[in-house]
Amino acid sequence: MALSISLVLLLGIIVFILVRTGYQRIMPGIAVCLFGFFLASTGIAPTITGAVSSVAGWISSF
């Protein structure tokens, strides 16, 4: 749970910086957020969560 909260916070900061610097526009950003929201309710969500957890574990082993 702590990993997902910190990952959401990190990604939120990155999106905020991209919007503020002009590299990311609001409407495509909303479309990507909605895509992620609806993707989370599909059957592939546990696979994505497992992949993110394994990459985070791999990075923390360094």
Explain this structure.
There is one protein chain. The chain is mostly helical and 62 residues long. It has 3 helices and no strands. It starts with a helix and ends with a helix.
Oligomer: single chain
Distance N to C terminus: 21 Å
Bin the strand percentage: under 5%
Question: Mean of the pLDDT scores?
Answer: 82
| Computed CA radius of gyration, to the nearest angstrom | 14 Å
**Runs with pLDDT <50, length 5+?**
none
Assign an overall shape: flat
Helicity level, as a percent range? over 70%
Task: List the secondary-structure elements in sequence, H or E.
Answer: HHH
Total strand count, please? 0
SS content category? mainly alpha
Largest sheet: none
- Helix count, per DSSP? 3
List keywords for this structure.
single chain; 62 residues; transmembrane helix; DUF2304 domain-containing protein; flat; membrane; transmembrane
Short précis:
The chain is an all-alpha fold. The protein has 3 helices and no strands.
What layout of secondary structure does this protein have?
Layout: H1 2-21, H2 26-39, H3 45-60
